[in-house]
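User: Fold this one for me? It's DNA internalization-related competence protein ComEC/Rec2.
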Amino acid sequence: MGGILLGLGLGWGGLVVGLGVGAGLLDRRPLLAALTLLGAGLGYGSERLQTGQPDRLAPWVGARVTLTGDWDGQFLTLQDPPARLALSPRPPQPPGRLEVSGRLVRPEGRTLPGGFDQAAWLRAQGGVFLPTPRTVLVGAQVRASRPEGGVRGWFRRGLAAGLSPRNAALMQAVELGDRGDLGRENFAEGYAVRDAFNRAGLAHLMALSGQNVALLTGALIFVLARLGAPTWLRYGLPLALLVPYLTVLVNVSPSITRAVVMGMAVLAGLWAGRGRPDVPGTLALAALVCLLLFPLWLLDVGFQLSFLAVLALTLTPRLAARLPAGWPPALRLALAATVLAELGTLPVVASNFGQLPLVGLPANLLAGGVMAALVPLGFVAGLLGPLAAPVNLLVSPLASLLLWLAEVFGRAPVLGWGQVGVGGLAAYTLAALAGALWLLGRVRGRAALGTVLACALLSWLPGTLRPARELVFLDVGQGDATLLRLPGLTMLVDAGGSVGSDYDVGARRVLPALRALGVRQIDVAVATHADTDHIEGLAAVLRGLPVGELWIGQRKADDPVLDAVLAAARERGVPVREVRRGDEVAAAGVRVTVLWPQGAPWSGEDNANSVALRVTAGRWHAALLGDLPSAVEGRIGAGPLDLLKTAHHGSRFSTDAAFLAQTHPKDALISVGARNTYGHPNPAVLERLAVAGARVWRTDRQGTVRWPLP
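Assistant: Here's what I get for DNA internalization-related competence protein ComEC/Rec2.
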C-alpha cells in the first residue's frame, strides 16, 4: 500500500511504509521489516507499470471515429490497436460485437461535490496486464451489432428463458453483473429500480461480487461434502473452477475479480488448513494479490468496501456471542454479520453516496435468504441455456420477491450525510477501535459507549457551530443549478437538465451533490423558466428531498418539462407559488428579492419570462438572471453588483455593454457545459466582461464554484 501511494506521488505513503518497517523492528523480526520494504518496492513497481502503459488511442483524441470491438456492457475492447474505452451514452444493446461511431474525448474528473470522478474510475479499471481505459467515445451511435455467442451467450439466454423482462434484467445483474437493462427499469414515474436498491441498502446485491462466489462455492462444497468427497477434492474442485468461472463465463470486472481472488485464497486456506484457515493471513494474501495486479484499486471505493466489510465480519462470532443466548444461532450470526458489515463500511458509504439506509438491517436479512436460493438456481438456469424454462419457474417468484423487497424498503427514509473529512475519519476510527476492543474484551462496555458518543458529538459540532453561508454554483454541464445555503434557509435555483437525452441530471448529479454538501432539505426550490436545461432536474430533487415551497414565474400551459416538475410537486405535496417582482425571503441577515417577472402580459419567448433574483448580504449584492435577454436585463433594476451570474450561459443575446455599465460587477459566473454545441460562452460576451473589469469564473473550467457570503 505504501509503495503504491508513493508511486502516485502521495508522500504520506512513506509513513505507511515506515509504520510497517517499525512494527517489524519493534517485534524484533528484521525479516518481516525487510519483507515490508520488498512489498513497498513491488507496490511502487506495479503502480509504475500500470500508469506507464502506452495510450494507444491518443492520436485520435478529439476526432470523430468509427470503431469495431467487443462490447461487454461496460467497455468496448478493440483488437487493433489493443485498447479499451467507455461509451457515452451507454448503448442499450446486449454484450456482443459492436460497430459504433462518435467523438473520442478524455474522461472528466470530479467537478462537483459527491460527483462521479470518471477519470479516476476508469484508471481503476485497468491493471498491470489489463489495458486501462483512457478515453470516452461521446455521442456514441451504434452502426451495427451482433449479440455475443459461445458460453456467455448461452448462459445469458438461460437467465431470460420464460421470465418477464424485469425479472430477466434482475437475473442478468445478479448472475453476470450486467445492470444495463435493470438500470432502465422503473417501479413508478421517478422511482427507478436501481435507486430503490440503493435506498434500501441492497445495492451490493446488484454487483457480481463475494456473495455470488460464496453462495456458489458453498453450494458446491455442500454437495461434495454430502457425497463424502475427501478434503482435497471438497476444496480443490471449487478452487479450480473459479478460474474458468471468471475468464469464460462472467465479464472481468474489479468486483468479481476481487471476489474470485478472495475465494481462491479462502479455499486454498481451507485446503491447506484442513478446513481451518487463518483469516487475517487469508485476507492479507487476497489484498496482496489484488494490489500487485491492479494497484489503483487501492483508491477504488469498491475495493475499500470489500475489504472493510470482510475485516468487520471477522468479529461476527464475538458479537453473536453477546446477543441473547435464547435466540437461534443462525439469527444471531445473521444479525451480527449484517450490523458489522454496515458499521465497517459506514464512512465510505456515507462519504461517497451521501446517505445511509435506515432499513439496511431488516432489508438485508430478508434479501439474504432470498439470494441464498436465487443465486444457485439462477446459475443452474444459466447453464441450461434455452432449456432453463422449468428451472425459471422457481427463479421467477424469488426474483419477484427480491424486487418487491427492494421496492418496499426503498421507500423508507434515508439518513442524509455529507462528505466525511479527515476529522470525521479520525472520529470514526477511534469509535470503531473502541467497539472492536469491547468485542475482544479489552475495554468495558461503558468506556466503549462513552468513546463512541463523544466521537459522534465531536463530528456533529463543527457543522452546528459554523453553519454554511454560501452560494454554490453546481457544475451540471450545459445547464443551471445554484444553491444558496444559509442558517435557516436553503434555496435551490434550477437543477439542470439534458436536452434530447434520457440522462437524469437531477438524480445523477444534483441530488448526489446536495447530499455530499450535507443538504437534508430544501426550503425553497425555484424553477426560473420552462427550459429543459434549467428545470428538468427539479423533478428528481422534489422526489428525492423534502422541499418546503416551489417558486415559478409563468405557469406556462402544456409544457411537458414544467408539467413534469409541477406533477412531482403535487405528488410530494409541495405548495407552488407564482412569484412576481418584489417578492422576497430573508434569513441570517441575507435577503433574496425577486427582480423579474412582473407578470402578464407574458412574452412569447420563455427566456424573457425567467425568474431573476437579487441576493443581498449587507453591502454585498449578487444577481441570478436565468436566461434573461439583454432587452429585459436593462429593465429589472439589478443595481450595482459584486457578483453577476450571467444570463443564458454567456450567450451573445445577454449581458450587453449597457447592462454591465449599469451593474459594474466585480466578478461574473458563467454556468456552461464543456461539450456544448451552442458556442457558449460567446467571445463577444467574454470581451465585454473583460472591458468592464469583471473576473470571469466558468463551471466548464473551474467545476463547481463555492462562493462564501459576507
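One thing worth pointing out: The first strand starts at residue 64 and ends at 71.
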